[in-house]
Amino acid sequence: MRLEQIEKDMLEGKHGKSVQKSMEILTTLGEIFGAECMVDVHSIQIAGVSYANLGEAGLEFLNEMAEDGKVRVLTTLNPAGMDRENWRALGINEEFFRNQNRAIDAFGKMGIITTCSCTPYLIGNAPHYGQHIAWAESSAVCYSNSVIGARTNREGGPSALAAALTGKTPKYGYHLEENRHSQVLFKVNASVKGTDEFGVLGKLIGDKLVELGKKIPYIAGIPSATVEELKSFCASVATYGGTALFHMEGITPEYNKYTKPSEIVIEINQDDLDRTRAELIDDDIEIDFVSLGCPHASIHEIAKIAKLLEGKKVKKEFWITTARPTKRIADEAGYSKIIEDAGAKFAADTCCVVAPIKGRFKGIMVDSAKACYYGRAKNKFKVKIGSMEQCVEEAIK
To answer: Which helix (H) or strand (E) holds 202?
Structure first.
């Protein structure tokens, strides 16, 4: 792989041990994937933040990198395992609290902004069309590639950190024009509205892509989509299909940049969506936990939740997971008070996917197909998907 002089200097240790280790990681990746050179990146988003995932081995690696490592570009973090301010109210024990903060402090020592969110594009880490970035969270990778038109592979935690400390990433995969062409055409012949329905569509398309051994879909038949619907779709199609990029006709910025696929065409009808929804509803479910905000809730979603909860009381554990800056805006707008007066709880910095909640609940209701997947696979909950309105109705039963 061709390296510029500064990259050679990094690899030789002239910019410190952490930068040297980072460049070793990146050049190894580049060689594995056949990259011809490095490319400068404009922003980073790092996953693998929860102490439940890191453990002591991961924390030791972070501390070693923090000895002399400093980020060179804007870098933010994925959700942690707890709300850093409201952890006690959410049932997090003190030992986990201490260990999680040790991890976040190590990231902070390197100059990383320790705002923990899976929607960095909503809180200031917002790349432009065509910019090269190095992001790790699967839903955010899919959103940035598809909805924004930035360019990133799905990084692992160590490679994203390495990119942050060097400002570089190997130029392969979705950084290259030739790898951004769609491979399968999906024609949607049904109305799709709301975060839950876009999540169901994402699961259906993701499952089909796995069956076909393809990664990049072109989707026709969706007349409009909100930011919230698109982030739900991104989370779902990335979870079920391993998808990091899609093109949606009339909606995403690159939909007409490449040739529309014609060899593989799949029709999606209402019956297909109904069958997929049924796969996200377990039999004999006893719901004792409701969670909204996977991916993290936007201020528009929080405003809607406040309107639905105003003057009511919840009867079940009910979390609204969001980024800390979004929670601050909700505080100022008065939404937080309405929601908390109803007995619901904010879980900033974290979410129902990464928080250590296995064994605490029996059944979870969500508006997120991604949350259904991890509710079953990671936490062994029974799950049910519904609209935001249906989730709130369940919480106040």
So the answer is: helix 194-212
**What's the DSSP call for residue 263?**
S
Contact 78, 41 (CB under 8 A): no
- What is the DSSP secondary-structure string of 29-96? HHHHTT-SSEEE-SEEEE---SHHHHHHHHHHHHHHHHTT---SSEEEE---SS-TTTTTTTT--HHH
d(CA 237, CA 117): 19
Q: How far apart are CA 193 and CA 387, in angstroms?
A: 10
3-state class percentages of the chain: helix first, strand second, coil last, to nearest 5 = 45, 15, 40
Count other Cβ atoms within 10 Å, centred on residue 226: 15
Taking the CA atoms of 192, 198, 199 and 202 in sequence, report the sign of the dihedral they define: positive
By C-alpha distance, which of 369, 362, 361, 363 is closest to 385? Answer: 369
d(CA 240, CA 124): 28
- Burial of 177: CB neighbours in 10 Å, binned 0-12, 13-18, 19+: exposed
Pairing outcome for strands 168-170 and 38-40 = antiparallel
- What does the pLDDT profile of the chain (397 residues) look like in tens digits? 999 999 999 999 999 999 999 999 999 999 999 999 999 999 999 999 999 889 999 999 999 999 999 999 999 999 999 999 999 999 999 999 999 999 999 999 999 999 999 999 999 999 999 999 999 999 999 999 999 999 999 999 999 999 999 999 999 999 999 999 999 999 999 999 999 999 999 999 999 999 999 999 999 999 999 999 999 999 999 999 999 999 999 999 999 999 899 999 999 999 999 999 999 999 999 999 999 999 999 999 999 999 999 999 999 999 999 999 999 999 999 999 999 999 999 999 999 999 999 999 999 999 999 999 999 999 999 999 999 999 999 999 9
H or E stretch covering 116: strand 113-116
Hunting for tokens 């979004």 — which residue is that? 326
Alpha helices in 279-377 (DSSP H): 299-309, 324-333, 335-341, 369-377
- Which regions of 132-244 does DSSP assign to beta strands (E)? 134-135, 168-170, 184-188, 217-220
Q: Using alpha carbons only, what angle is made at residue 373 by residues 75 and 336, rounded to the nearest 5 degrees?
A: 60
CB count, 10 Å around CB of 120? 30
